[in-house]
Amino acid sequence: MDKQFNFEQIGKRMPYNVPDGFFDRLEQNVMAEVKADNCKSAQLKPKVQKAHTVKIAIRTILAAAAAVALFFVVTMNMSNDTSPTEDSFTNVELAYNNLSTEDQEFLLEVYEEDEFINDSNEEDYEEDI
Amino acid sequence: MYKEKYLLCENNSIMAGDKGIIVAIRENPERGFRLLMASYKEPVYWHIRRLVVSHADAQDVAQETFVRIFRNFHQYNEENSFKAWIFRIATNEALRLLGKLKNSAMLSLDEVTADMLGTKTDEHFDNSDAITMKLQQAILHLPTKQQLAFSLRYYDEMSYEEIAEVAGSTAASMKVNYNIAKEKIIAYMNNND
How confident is the model over B42-92, as pLDDT tens digits? Predict the structure, then answer.
């Protein structure tokens, strides 16, 4: 009669083995790589966060400066209702000239990008339609 | 000494559990990953070893597997089994290595694995245990899906749902694969005395 194979004869035994202390070394090697990964990301994080914070601060300052400048321009226009349009433009120019280069650039950027106050954009929009 | 530590690790892993490991990794990645290693380094290594056979290859694949698990932990979906996710990464890494061997030897994947015990033996094999050598040979002769189904069920005691997640298949299909694998192994063990 054939002797039938039974899994219970072997159980989970395997013909494989590992060197002494292998699993401890495996863990050490992996943890060393993981730590190196952590260090890299930790070194990157503050730089990224710092750069992001500086960007936000610059934008906030520029926005505040632009808002102040616009307030002065509007106030000057309102206080001199009888003055001709040419005077208004002169006032705007004067106020604009008093701004720092950065604020001037920011205002220009806002003006150029604004679809509602920029004629050329409006034309483009009409052409698109 | 090693045995004691292993038992201690086993106890730690039981206390932590997969959910505990996940929470620990989110709170403190390094500490959490130590818990993961304590629970999974041995089962993952042996799973890989059964697939790639050689200790040196299994060591490389296991190391790469754990580094990948750490780097891709944010991609783990808690709706799925954590154990199955870990074993899926390990399986993919092992199959990637076997794929490289297949390409270099111009053989099919099944031919590569079937020949493993003939070509990959080194000092980390117990040649004196003939019956266990023969069982591994029988497993290595199976197609990859049947190998996975048998190995994950028999050695790692996974549910068919978990095995399906590892193999990217359905539980029903993996159950069929397991039963076919078992029959083939019994036939191999009985016919090749």
Answer: 999 999 999 999 999 999 999 999 999 999 999 999 999 999 999 999 999
Three-state SS sequence of chain B: CHHHHHHHHHHHHHHHHHHHHHHHHHHCHHHHHHHHHHHHHHHHHHHHHHHHCCHHHHHHHHHHHHHHHHHCHHHCCCCCCHHHHHHHHHHHHHHHHHHHHHHHHCCCHHHHHHCHHHHCCCCCECCCCHHHHHHHHHHHCCCHHHHHHHHHHHCCCCCHHHHHHHHCCCHHHHHHHHHHHHHHHHHHHHHCC
Tell me: the pLDDT tens digits for B92-110? Answer: 999 999 998 877 765 555 6
Residue B133 Cα to chain centre, angstroms = 18
CA neighbor of B153 nearest in space, from B137, B139, B138: B139
Express the helix, strand and coil content of chain A in percent, nearest 5 each. Answer: 75, 0, 25
Distance from CA of A46 to the nearest CA of B (A): 18
Q: Do B129 and A13 touch (CB under 8 A)?
A: yes
- CATH architecture assignment, domain B2-191: Orthogonal Bundle (1.10)
B154: contact with A, CB 8 A cutoff:
yes
Which of B57, B46, B90, B50 minimizes the C-alpha distance to B72? B90
> Looking at the complex, does the CB of residue B7 fall below 8 Å from at least one CB of chain A?
no
Nearest-CA distance A14 → chain B (Å): 5
Cα separation, B170 vs B148, whole angstroms: 13
